[in-house]
Amino acid sequence: MPAGERRESILEAATAVFGERGYVGTTTDAVAKAAGVSQPYVVRMFGTKEQLFLEVLQRALDRLLATFRGVIAEHGPGGKEALGALIGNAYADLLRDRGLLLSLMQAFMLGADPVIGPAARAGLLEVYAVLRDEAGFTSDEADAFLSHGMMLNTLVAIGMAGSYETDPSARELIDACAPSKAPLIVRLAKQHRA
Amino acid sequence: MPAGERRESILEAATAVFGERGYVGTTTDAVAKAAGVSQPYVVRMFGTKEQLFLEVLQRALDRLLATFRGVIAEHGPGGKEALGALIGNAYADLLRDRGLLLSLMQAFMLGADPVIGPAARAGLLEVYAVLRDEAGFTSDEADAFLSHGMMLNTLVAIGMAGSYETDPSARELIDACAPSKAPLIVRLAKQHRA
DNA sequence: GTCTATAGGGCGATAGAC
DNA sequence: GTCTATCGCCCTATAGAC
Lengths: 194, 194
What we know:
The structure is a homodimer of 194-residue chains. By secondary structure, chain A is mostly helical. Chain A has a domain at 50-157. Helices cover 75% and strands 0% of the residues of chain A. The first copy, chain A, has 10 helices and no strands. Chain A has helices at 3-21, 28-35, 39-46, 49-75, 80-93, 100-108, 116-134, 139-158, 168-177, 182-193. In chain A, helix 1 (3-21) packs across helix 4, helix 2 (28-35) packs across helix 3 and helix 4 packs antiparallel against helix 5 (80-93). The structure holds a DNA duplex (18 and 18 nucleotides).
């Protein structure tokens, strides 16, 4: 396999594993097994585990921002209030890219790390900048969007959707905090278990 | 030192370390050093690192819920809309208890863990139940409260407040997403650096 | 109640063959 | 481009003295 493709397939596998186990909890061996290569090969290709995570983070940010910009561009000069809902749906759709939003969230939790911390802060600031400057969100709109995004990330990370159908209180929480996304995250939780 | 006091001082130290480094990233030795005891003593007292984290999580939840209930009880039969702001302020005040809210957030990120995951989900559900059943929040109010709580946790975890005065875009983000809490988290970030 | 010493296991990274 | 073998470190947990 050419190096470019192999790189991408390892990054994809790493995104899923980092998203589920976190940075420290992920072993390069687990990433290697998920990608179907040997552990030393992963290290050889990315240098260090830290560098691998930084590339996963950058790739996740690139895709998130590209998705937002795609929605903004396609939206055209129509009504402004519809854009918020469109970007919100596009954001939730990114949950299909397994581990992508969770890897971002894991990076956000690593602010104390001298290398990952600065990259994570820069990434979050870039997201906010795109919402304000390119999507035209007010600061209140950006606040609501980011806050609910963090809530959604947390609900997925904690695995609450896995109890949606068996635990009425889990259902109530999800319906309250992520109403329109409930069907999606419940479906993804089932797929994940299978 | 009597066992009870020693226990509490280790739990306090562990809360700070777990909050900053996460569950997997925390060594029992780091907790021991922060508490001024030897590493084997920490393990001896709590059995395992996992058990220690579970106790940190439970202690954090207990304090969070006790704080909420205190505000609800003191508030009396007065205006209902004021209670939301009071609980919000009480929540932000818990940031002074170093690592407490961050340890909770770290637990929320461990949903995939077979032992910690269930405890974290039960904890979040209990918080939601208190907001709905004891504070009398509507589901929309609970959603807004929890979402902004997650956002605040994320801003603190990522260390954004450390750039508040040097980076105008960090300031803009914090002012947008945690307006009334900005002075507090900036002060805490400074204390933490010193 | 608290320590020192250390066993035991796992992980990131390197060496080097093919 | 990819692997096997392995080094060396770090970390949890145990043993056992004081």
